[in-house]
Fold:
Amino acid sequence: MKNALQEQLLKAGLADEKKLKKMKKEKHLQRKQVGKKQKIVNEATLSVAEQRREQVARDQELNRQRKAEAEEKAIAAQVRQLINVNRISHQGEVAFNFADGNLVKRLYVNQKIHNELTKGKLAIARDAIAPDKNGYALIPAQVADKIQQRIPTAIVLLNVNDVVENDADEEDPYADYKIPDDLMW
Structure:
């Protein structure tokens, strides 16, 4: 039994048996192709899903990097704030020399600050926003310890008093003998 439309086309003479068979065969092939296209679509879907996974992984890595950069900026801001709040002015006439990497730098301070730097009560920190334009700031040793925990390279000089050396001096058998001030080596 044929389709009603096909019968009408045959009666009108617009179609013949060969054309109908050809159309039927094409429809059959199209149905088969639909099954194959679904497999192709599945492969395409898989490749799209893989691309999404890769994109999510890239985005997560990028977010992690941005978060790390934000944390570094926050720590740097904390260090700048600690330096600016605890800065000690150091105007004076006594030269204090210190090493910054391979360079020897000089700050002019008064005698009291010079002694405190030597004893380790004060420290020298790198400061990009120094009002005297030399890039260094004097800060208390306790603040320098906090800064060193955050950014170790920000502290240029921090003298540490060793209590162990004082104990060794007490056991020294020659402690009773004073060294003359005018002794030359």
